[in-house]
Amino acid sequence: IPTLVHELILVEVWKQKVFPILCQLQDFQPKSTFPLYIVIHHEATVINLLETIMFHKDRHSVSRIAGDGASSMQELKAQNAALEFEISLKALSVLRYITDHTDSISVINRMLCTHNLPCVLVQLTECCPWSRYREGQLEKYMNGTWQKIAPEDHVKMSKLDGQVWLSLYNLLLKEDCQRKYDFNNYNKNCILKVFSELALSIVVPKLFQCSLFSVRCDFLGSLPAPNPAPPKKGLILEQIPEMWNHIVHENVGKWKAIAKYQVKETFNPSENDLRQQAQRLAQTYSLDVMESLIPEKPKCGCCGHEAVKRCSRCQGEWYCNRECQVKHWAKHKAACKLMAEASEGIQNNLNHENV
Fold first, then answer.
1. FRET label pair with 81: which of 21, 98, 180, 211, CA 20 to 30 Å apart?
2. In whole angstroms, what is the distance from residue 355 CA to residue 142 CA?
3. What is the pTM for the complete model shown?
């Protein structure tokens, strides 16, 4: 986890300090922006991996590696904005997993008092960036895409809504957090406002209908009208952003020099270097490598036993022996043809672009 966090911070500093300089350099006209795209996409890959680890269940999948290199800096900026949005939503999930352990981490004081995350989360529920209207139709961002929502499902809580509410639940309704949080008039009114909106406008899961949640809400409503006394502060141990501070301190005043160096040495590769990079990535993210990391062995599409052979045409179905493959061909034939044609079409498009 420390390695992943360091990678995320490193890319974030690069995006804030170096990437804007790269985009402004007049002499930076790369033949391909694919190396830049890989750096930007690396953040999305790492945040997905961190989310998976913190979720701590095997069924959660790491983000796919997809997308061709951008053909221009404008397209790269657009891809960066799209990835930034998706990364931010993943960060919300990571935040929720952190709040699951408020009784054991030293950053809880920073979350509650320094950054006032409960009020930040309340504002997030009000602006709701994962929900939008297009041509009068409500759409919500779910599973990596914008999906149209049927009218009867408008008030249902989505997964991202649930992440926000679980975070609020963890930060406000645990006794240790209540002792540390300052329930002044502003914070109390902000929280009570969103609680009332929850009760009126959203269909919530049973978690928020439990008696404990109702009791805690009543407790918040019973706070006195004037500002209550702030929580007593004894010895406070607070983590500081050590990795961030170290990276910024070591490179302060060097950002433009770093950008120029990277233009020359990293982001303007020769055609041969670019081809070698693409080959290494193809080897790293090949189906065989990915499947070797899966704890469960593939199953035969015919009998369900452990499989050792794969369909040579579509590469998508597994079999334990030749007999099962022949027996299953009548069912697999149509799907095999579709997958093979799709794969061939993608390859033909890539070859056409390279020409």
1. 98
2. 37
3. 0.58
